[in-house]
Specification:
Chain lengths: 520, 462
């Protein structure tokens, strides 16, 4: 077994099962790290909790909802304004967060009354918002408050409001992943099927496991709408509460992040017979194939092909400009969960980067299977990495760039490895054809940053060049390129806008002739 | 009285101003050298706090979790602390100080962290790590009591209480800074140097303005040592700048070791810095040197250019850490501004007895409200629904959308300030801090005048 033992972790032998190096000719059965096990205390793991998995990752991107956490104030504060799940309703869910403010007396005597006052006050403060999600926390779970009963009581008294209860305290599982599962199941149990939607077209999907980071959802929905597909709901980025209550009426669940949202797709299949189709919104080819699959399902492949042709023609020259300059650069692909397999192969195929390592904080073995099978030989795969292992890996692999979270990015900065924010993106959205070029541009800018180059100079020991008064990224990236590539007329740098979403919001779409009589 | 002190009347919080106690204890812990704290609770209590502090400082640093999962919550999780301590000590050979920071989870289930520390001291540490200096320090910071502010206060006290040991007088001053920025520590040390005072600074976090170095110095640490903490008992005096962040430690040292002690004022603004120097002089007998007279003069010179021309009657809302918010209000009054609303984000019962708040109540000549246990809705609701008009907001980044959505210019100050670059490097304390703050306020107002075409032509001839 090609397990990799970190020097810093020899003293905790169980860690050995959590890292592998994919050797030549090895298949997955020989190279699969353990995953989703209890965290070893004191390792300085990067994992979060099940509350944040439920509330922060999946719950809060719902846009027209009061997100109320029942507990002390910290859980709410800490998961507020630390992600970029935007929405087209002026970002209500980013701007407002609610905490029941549980204090010691409530811990002793119960906090159900407090919760009820909170709910009523919150609706009063925002009279236009009629939907709410209440999140349990460690404290409210342990004192045994009955959130469901209080929610029902308020709904009985205020028939115009609807409340969803998510019981996923921080301790409920080894990582945030436990919370993903809990909120998926809670939503389908409590809310799906409680509203009948208006079906406006022949082809109706739920877009699932998509959180609208910097606008990803809006970019993807643009493609679906251009295909004449009705997106009944998005689970959950930029998603509307009532739309999501009608998930049972879709013909197909199009699933993006299987790690966080396959549970609800599987339940929708079992309970309502809706098939699940896994797609990739990242990368030209995976995205093209994804739209093709959706087109194939509905028998509208031609509509998919038209979009693919148009977008590819528009953006391929720009992607290839970057590919020429990123070839062979080494990347540590260290996101939270699903992006390790969303990106592993395609940043190699389409940007020329070599993935030298993948890791996952909260992924399961299934995510590693997909990730490892898609990355290059020799890549180091790490489950539930910790601070010292991350450093050791970077020292061993000497990556040209690392794609990870904000705080680990600060660690990378100090050892002079450029970093991009894999969770929130630098200059996203990164989905869609344009998004993928944005991603390539961000990677390029990070690797060829003149300031980054200056960090590699030791002015006390090295020769200081006094004849170079500045450098540009192109001066750095193109020095080693052939004349032909450098001047290739059919390649160009990114030409999109800073905020590409402006042109999407309020856009009108062509009407397709209805397939069946009666459909609008 | 025109200035009213009131408490939030609503039961709940809409957009919190503070997070909970464990965050404060964690922030204190990173100021100590060779220290990695273990937060005993769910993993989010560490992961998000590290993210928060790292967003503010643009640095990384180490704090561990005992990673309590279901079984621990049900059956007790002391074993997780034992394992965490062992794992941490095995892998971080330099670590000597390990605070065990409790959370709501482990306080509710009643884990005995003192008992764990005792057990580890007698068992694991004696047997597996004989001869290694390790200090396990239980710190109780249940999230349902107080706020990040009291969590910081408790942690500083507990660190001092654990280490302080009376031996020989060391002639030093204990300077307990409270929750400040690296830039503030630099500024305070500058003032001490000018006064020729040898001080133990709790905590030395200047090093969090840390460099990218050719040898790849990778993790930032505070630099307050065990010796510094031990020596606090032997100081000639203690000066705590903040009543609510470090006041408890000062009180402990005063009671336990009979050390002459002064608490406050937070040296924000000219007047408070004057009082700070006076306090230094009182405690150490050292005179205020001409160099500081000159430095003060430079600040006054800068402020004189701004006060009646630009600041007079400007209506300000201020929120954040209590000592900071109160001193900012005092400074604004000296600058001829009108603090209209002061929001203190927790329910500390001491606020109503705070002489500074009493002084505001007695002497402020315009309508002003001080709201305790406040949230951001206390501010937004007044602007949106109750006709509060403001010219400026002073506070940390979590209130940014009020400034953005209601078009009110805002100067970021306090913790956290992640949506502006580099603020942790700049002091708000001392004369230099007064100048920096006033000029930030002025430039922010200027940009706003220009943006809104609001008498922007005034600046043509200034």
């Amino acid at each position: 077994m090609p397990y990799h033992e970190f020097k810093c972790s020899t003293c905790i032998p169980e860690r050995k099962n959590h890292a592998v190096i994919k050797g030549p000719g090895e298949d997955l059965t020989m190279a699969l790290p353990a995953g989703y096990l209890s965290t070893i205390p004191g390792t300085i793991s990067e994992r979060g909790c099940a509350y944040c998995g439920a509330k922060h990752v999946i719950g809060s991107p719902m846009k027209d909802v009061i997100h109320l956490s029942h507990g002390p104030v910290g859980c709410t504060y800490d998961t507020w304004q630390t992600k970029r799940y935007i929405s087209d309703n002026d970002n209500f869910q980013l701007k407002y967060t609610f905490a029941s403010d549980m204090k010691e007396k409530h811990v002793v005597f119960g906090a159900e009354k407090l919760l009820k006052s909170n709910i009523i006050e919150a609706f009063k403060a925002f009279p236009n918002i009629k939907r709410m999600t209440i999140y349990q926390t460690c404290a409210s779970a342990l004192i045994g408050d009955d959130l469901n009963a209080i929610a029902q009581e308020v709904m009985d008294e205020m028939p115009e409001v609807d409340i969803f209860v998510c019981n996923s305290p921080g301790f409920a599982g080894p990582s945030q992943s436990g919370g993903h599962h809990k909120i998926n199941i809670a939503w389908i149990n409590q809310k799906v099927g409680t509203i009948e939607p208006k079906i406006t077209g022949d082809y109706v999907i739920n877009y699932v496991g998509e959180y609208n980071i910097q606008g990803d959802q809006e970019v993807m929905c643009d493609f679906f709408k251009r295909m004449g597909i009705q997106v009944l709901s998005t689970f959950t980025g930029n998603g509307s509460y009532d739309d999501l209550r009608a998930m049972h009426k879709a013909q197909l669940n199009v699933l993006e992040c299987a790690r966080s949202a396959e549970y609800i797709c599987n339940e929708l299949r079992v309970r309502y017979g809706i098939p699940r189709l896994d797609i990739d919104g990242f990368g030209f080819e995976p995205l093209a194939n994804s739209l093709r699959k959706v087109g194939l399902f509905f028998g509208i492949e031609d509509r998919a092909e038209a979009i693919i042709a148009e977008e590819t023609a528009r953006w391929k020259p720009e992607l290839d400009w970057y590919k020429e300059r990123l070839k062979g650069k080494k990347v540590c692909l260290w996101p939270g969960g699903s992006k390790l397999w969303h990106w592993a192969h395609v940043i190699h195929d389409e940007m020329g980067l070599d993935v030298v390592s993948v890791y996952t904080k909260f992924g399961h073995q299934g995510d590693m299977e997909k990730g490892i099978s898609r990355c290059e030989e020799g890549a180091l795969a790490i489950d539930d990495p910790n601070e010292l292992e991350g450093l050791e890996a970077m020292e061993m692999l000497k990556p040209d760039i690392i794609l990870t979270g904000k705080r680990p990015g600060e660690v990378a900065k100090k050892i002079r490895v450029p970093y991009l924010n894999a969770h929130a993106y630098h200059n996203g959205p990164w989905k869609g054809w344009e998004g993928w070029v944005r991603f390539a541009r961000d990677i390029y800018n990070a690797i060829y940053s003149p300031i980054h180059k200056l960090t590699l100079l030791d002015i006390a020991a090295d020769e200081i060049a006094t004849d170079t008064t500045f450098e540009t990224q192109v001066m750095l990236s193109d020095a080693a390129l052939s004349e032909e590539t450098r001047n290739a007329a059919d390649l160009r740098q990114f030409t999109g806008q800073f905020d590409g979403l402006k042109s999407l919001r309020g856009k009108t779409y062509p009407e397709f002739e209805a397939k069946t009589a009666g459909a609008a | 009285m025109l200035c009213e002190l009131k408490e939030r009347e609503r039961a709940g919080i809409i957009n919190p101003i503070f997070t909970c106690q464990p965050c404060g204890a964690q922030f204190a812990s990173i100021g100590i050298k060779d220290c990695i704290g273990i937060v005993h609770g769910g993993q989010g209590c560490v992961m998000f706090v590290r993210l928060l502090i790292s967003q503010h400082l643009k640095e990384s640093f180490e704090i561990a979790s005992s990673s309590v999962h279901e079984s621990g919550a049900v059956f007790g999780a002391c074993g997780r602390v034992e394992e965490a301590v062992d794992v941490l000590l095995m892998r971080y050979p330099d670590v000597k100080v390990v605070p065990i920071i409790s959370t709501c989870l482990t306080e509710v289930i009643g884990d005995d962290i003192e008992g764990v520390a005792r057990k580890l001291n007698e068992g694991l540490l004696a047997e597996k790590y004989p001869g290694r200096e390790v200090h396990l320090i239980p710190i109780h910071t249940p999230s349902f009591v107080g706020s990040m502010i009291s969590g910081y206060d408790i942690a500083v006290r507990d660190f001092v209480k654990y280490f302080a040991k009376k031996t020989e007088p060391n002639g030093k001053l204990n300077l307990i800074t409270g929750w400040v920025n690296p830039g503030d520590v630099t500024a305070l040390k500058h003032l001490l140097r000018e006064m020729d005072i040898d001080a133990t600074v709790l905590f030395e976090i200047e090093s969090f303005d840390s460099p990218v170095m050719p040898d790849g110095n990778h993790v930032s640490h505070g630099s307050t040592t065990i010796e510094d903490l031990t020596g606090t008992a032997n100081a000639q005096a203690t000066l705590a700048l903040n009543r609510y962040e470090g006041g408890k430690a000062a009180e402990y040292l005063a009671t336990e070791f009979d050390i002459p002690t002064l608490v406050g004022p937070t040296p924000i603004g000219i007047r408070n810095t004057d009082a700070f120097l006076k306090n230094l002089k009182t405690l150490t007998g050292k005179p205020i040197p001409q160099s500081l007279v000159r430095e003060r003069g430079q600040a006054l010179d800068a402020l004189t250019d701004l006060t009646h021309m630009f600041f007079a009657d400007k209506r300000v809302a201020i929120y954040g850490a209590p000592d900071l918010a109160i001193s900012l209000a005092e400074f604004c009054l000296d600058l001829e501004m009108k603090p209209k609303l002061l929001l203190l984000g927790d329910d500390n019962s001491g606020y109503q007895h705070d002489p500074r708040i009493k002084a505001l109540q007695q002497n402020v000549g315009h309508e002003m409200e001080i709201v305790t246990n406040a949230d951001f809705w206390e501010l937004e609701d007044r602007i949106k629904n109750k006709g509060l008009e403001l010219d400026l907001i002073l506070g940390h980044s979590k209130g940014r959308f009020i400034s953005i959505d209601y078009n009110i210019p805002m100067v970021r100050v306090g913790f956290p300030t992640y949506d502006r670059a580099g603020l942790h490097r700049h002091p708000v304390v001392g004369y230099a801090g007064a100048t920096w703050l006033a000029e930030q306020m002025a430039n922010t107002l200027f940009a706003d005048m220009e943006h809104k075409h609001n008498k922007e032509w005034i600046l043509n001839v200034w």
